[in-house]
Design goal:
- This protein is of the alpha/beta class.
- It has helices at residues 32-47, 67-76, 109-119, 128-131, 140-144, 154-171, 185-188, 205-212, 214-235, 237-245, 306-318, 338-342, and strands spanning 10-16, 53-57, 81-88, 98-103, 176-182, 194-201, 261-270, 287-292, 295-303, 325-330, 335-336.
């Protein structure tokens, strides 16, 4: 695992989009700057509980931060990840769903429009044309020569983006719009794996209400946290391979979902029958109860992916369940050993 000394912790910079005089989009009279901030603060609050992480914010209040300053915060802190959180909005009220962007040349008109909208915030900055070398956020021509300064981090950025989108699609009922590339200035200026997350469309009536709700914001934050943790675990390949070696499998064996195995996290065992509600388990959800002989086992989460199970276990430990561990069940609902589960052929 990562060293617990502050200088060697895995550094994540959380960037709440917009702020201050820059409201972002205001679809259905919702405020992107406020919703993005609430989600960002929830993400950070959860991640701060992990001993091997150091969390920084570009803003924690309703203030305007220039795009280059946001990147500067990440660069000066030698961050390992930069995660920018936004809400989408278009004139048509029909589009919905989540999408996560990495830096790149836009491949269609929709991606260009999203980038133009997000980059237009530089107009709130003084001398923005000088500061950004004559870049005009409203001119498609400015994007033609868009330099991919993040090229060396593109694969890692895409990996993180895929983990985030997978969490959205598995835990939320929102449409999965996938991982995309576009020319975002805030991503261009950073020197580490970076993503920009569009958490949904405020301009869609139902989705806007979900994004504006405390429950919706918590669900989105949970998914982002789990995605970040999956990324952190997989790039720490030595620790992963060490953990898997006792089961005689490698990291490549656990990347895909298992079709006939379900993983859960055991939080506690008790002779008492406790109501398996989130309120009784530090608001972790979902909680299930499994009886073995005279003991009741209390389990958190459910996934067919071992990497996701690791992320859920880490989250349980961060919430204070320091002895939490992964358990597995076969397609009949019978508990099996982790070794048996991991040696089940992926895709069967």
């Amino acid at each position: 695992m990562y060293s617990q000394t502050d200088s060697n912790k895995f550094v994540v910079v959380i960037d709440a989009g917009h702020g201050g005089q820059d409201a972002g989009n205001t679809g259905n009279n919702y405020s992107e700057k406020d919703i993005a901030l609430k989600i960002a603060l929830q993400v950070g609050k959860q991640l701060e509980k992990y001993e091997d992480l150091k969390i920084l914010y570009t803003r924690k209040t309703d203030v305007f931060i220039p795009l280059d300053k946001r990147a500067e915060i990440a660069n000066k802190s030698d961050a390992d990840l930069f995660v920018s959180i936004h809400c989408n909005g278009v004139r048509n009220p029909s589009p919905s769903g989540t999408e996560t962007f990495v830096l790149g040349l836009h491949r269609n008109k929709d991606n260009l429009e999203v980038a133009m909208k997000e980059n237009s915030v530089i107009k709130f900055e003084e001398d923005y044309q000088v500061k950004y070398d004559g870049f005009d956020p409203d001119s498609p021509e400015s994007y033609i020569g868009f330099t991919i300064m993040q090229e060396e981090f593109l694969d890692q950025s895409a990996l993180l983006a895929n983990f985030v989108q997978k969490q959205f699609s598995s835990s939320l009922s929102l449409k999965d719009r996938g991982v995309k590339q576009a020319g975002f200035l805030v991503l261009r200026e950073t020197y580490m794996p970076s993503v920009l997350i569009e958490t949904g469309f405020l301009t869609n009536k139902n989705e806007g209400a979900f994004l504006n709700s405390q429950s919706g914001q918590t669900q989105l934050a949970n998914a982002i946290v789990n995605g970040i943790n999956e990324y952190k675990n997989i790039i720490n390949i030595e620790a992963l391979e060490s953990e898997l070696s006792e089961y005689k499998v490698s990291s490549s064996d656990v990347m895909q979902d298992f079709s006939s195995v379900v993983f859960k996290i055991q939080l506690a065992a008790s002779s008492r029958k406790i109501d398996p509600s989130p309120e009784n388990f530090k608001k972790l959800s979902p909680i299930t109860r499994h009886q073995e002989n005279d003991l009741f086992k209390y389990l958190f989460g459910e996934t067919r992916n071992y990497m996701s199970a690791q992320s859920l276990r880490d989250r349980a430990k961060a919430e204070g369940y320091t002895s939490a561990f992964i358990v597995a069940f076969n397609s009949s609902g019978d508990k099996i050993s982790i070794k048996e589960a991991l040696n089940t052929r992926v895709g069967d």
